[in-house]
Design goal:
CATH superfamily of the largest domain: 2-enoyl-CoA Hydratase, Chain A, domain 1
CATH architecture of the largest domain: Alpha-Beta Complex
Structural class: alpha+beta
Distance between the termini: 122 Å
Number of helices: 19
Number of domains: 3
Low-confidence stretches: 18-22
CATH topology of the largest domain: 2-enoyl-CoA Hydratase, Chain A, domain 1
Helix content: 40-55%
Radius of gyration: 32 Å
Length: 539
């Protein structure tokens, strides 16, 4: 072995050791440098979310849209809290605010799309379209020189084209029966009201009926007009229909229920971990004191509807008729953000005067929470009151000592099961095809001139019964794939005939034509009428 190779063997271990030491040193230096690079995001004042965003912005392999990242993450964060704490993106704020304020910018028509044709069903009184002479039955063919007829237009797209900021213009071309050419209108959009009170009318000489669809800024004013109308007819009993009402403004429901209660009577109270207990009481200015009251609710009555029902029930002011309500008793405050978005944060819970918490449990997660209605249906709650069981720990008492139960929602005093007695395969087929609504619309449109001379639901129903509309509809259904079924007609004939008359009346007279006719097959309303005329009402 020569001297050169002996030296290489001698120095190899030394060189290897030196390389390892140098490698360790470089690793330590790099680690220290890397650590120092992240020191600015590790300050104790920053939350983990801030740290993550900083790290992504400074070190992520690709560019990211931080704003979009945050907007996508917020709903997932809030989902961990409760089902009603929500984030409202800027793009949705306009629609949310319109819904709650009770008005929007538009041309003032109600429309229906049949056979790819947008047809005006009703023109809002005092609105921009009425002032220009647009009529029910007109077909909207073009909007701003764009054809919308025969192109598969949807409700949402029509609304997008017709709605807009007050004072802006929209050009509409209309086809009208009997006129060969299109009629052009240049419409200046105005404030169009979103009504909360669907209808008010006298069922008989003693009993009035008011249907409230939601609670918004203008609801109390509308409600008072409805009650004034009934009082002018010397109403003695009133039925307030809150079925399907999802709730809304607390201020509106407080003033509305106060019309029925004596001064100082408790309506509702709220409290939360960071919110002191707050009591809401009647102001003593009620216009309906001394009159019998029944409130109708169902599984879709929520929030403010449950406050109204709970106050009437716990104060023994009237009776609740229907099925157990939804169980939404969480109080939200809307917090605006600088970018135009907002968050609705739950800050407290609602409690009825007896102390019942309106909110149903949500500890199994949001999915289970929103599937609760389906679970109730499967369990038989819509059909049998006995299927609902309450623990004694949920027992409360009204002002006069009647037993009521907590645990979420309002349980009615008089249970009315969902009515399926008139359902048949024949009825199911014509319903799935929407044939009743289609025929009613076509019939009303073809006979609009004659029907428009009829001024109320009673006259409308009497006229339609003489025209044999029911028999004509059966032939129409057969042409549209649902042949005549004598057995099905025997079971469902009354429902179909009543719906036909009611929908035709709605197309001509609006809700004041629809509700007085449809009440004939409304088992919950019929039960309320019998209850309010009985001696079962609280004194």
């Amino acid at each position: 072995m020569d001297k050169k190779n002996r030296r290489l063997i001698t120095w190899t271990p030394v060189l290897l050791a030196f390389a390892i030491i140098v490698g360790i040193f470089i690793g330590i230096v790099l680690q220290r440098r890397q650590q120092s690079a992240f020191d600015h995001v590790k300050s104790p004042g920053n939350s983990k979310i801030d740290l993550i965003l900083n790290l992504v912005n400074d070190y992520y392999v690709d560019s990211v849209n931080e704003k979009q990242l945050v907007n996508n993450a917020i709903p997932d964060i809030l989902k961990q809290l409760d089902p009603h704490t929500t984030y409202i993106p800027k793009k949705d704020m306009k629609e949310v605010n319109e819904e709650m304020s009770g008005n929007f910018g538009g041309i003032g028509v109600q429309f229906s799309i049949q056979n790819d044709t947008v047809t005006v069903v009703d023109v809002i009184s005092g609105g921009p379209s009425q002032k220009l002479g647009i009529q029910a039955g007109d077909r909207i063919v073009m909007v701003n020189d764009t054809t919308i007829a025969g192109v598969g237009i949807t409700n949402d797209k029509v609304i997008q084209k017709l709605r807009g900021k007050k004072g802006t213009h929209v050009k509409v071309s209309i086809a009208r029966r009997g006129i060969p050419n299109l009629i052009d209108f240049d419409i200046t959009r105005g404030d169009i009201p979103l009504y909360s009170v669907d209808v008010s009318y006298m069922i008989d000489k003693n009993t009035g009926y008011v249907k409230v669809g939601r609670f918004a800024e203008n609801t109390y004013t509308e409600f008072m007009k409805a009650l004034d109308k009934l009082n002018q007819d010397s109403v003695k009993n009133v039925i307030i229909d809150l079925r399907g009402n999802p709730g809304g403004y607390l201020a509106a429901v407080i003033k509305m229920v106060s019309e029925f209660l004596d001064k100082g009577e408790l309506i509702v109270y709220t409290k939360g971990l960071h919110q002191p207990k707050k009591m809401f009481r009647a102001d003593g200015k009620g216009s309906m004191l001394g009159k019998k009251v029944v409130v109708l609710i169902d599984e879709f009555s929520a929030s403010a509807s449950e406050i109204f029902s709970g106050a009437i029930q716990d104060n023994d002011r009237g009776l609740i008729v229907g099925r157990r309500s939804f169980g939404k008793g969480l109080v939200q405050e809307q917090i605006p953000f600088s970018d135009g978005s907002a968050m609705r944060l739950t800050v407290a819970r609602y409690y009825t005067p007896s102390g019942r918490c309106i909110q149903k449990p949500y500890d199994e997660g949001n999915k289970a929470y929103y599937q609760d209605i389906a679970r109730r249906f499967k369990h038989g709650e819509f059909e049998q009151r006995d299927s609902i069981h309450f623990n004694d720990s949920l027992k409360y008492h009204t002002r006069l000592g009647r037993v009521v139960y907590g645990g979420g929602g309002i349980m009615p005093d008089v249970f009315v099961p969902a009515d399926t007695t008139g359902f048949s395969d024949y009825y199911g087929k014509i319903t799935s095809k929407g044939l009743v609504y289609r025929y009613a619309f076509d019939y009303a449109d073809a006979h609009r001139e004659v029907l428009s001379k009829l001024k109320d639901a009673k006259a409308m129903e009497a006229y339609l019964n003489k025209q044999d509309v029911f028999a004509k509809f059966i032939r129409f259904a057969a042409k549209n794939g649902v042949p005549r079924d004598s057995k099905g007609l025997k079971i469902s004939g009354k429902i179909i005939k009543t719906q036909l008359n009611a929908y035709i009346a709605r197309n001509i007279l609006g809700e004041e034509g629809f509700y007085p006719i449809i009440k004939e097959i409304d088992t919950t309303l019929q039960k309320a009428i019998s209850v309010i005329e009985s001696d079962k009402m609280p004194d």
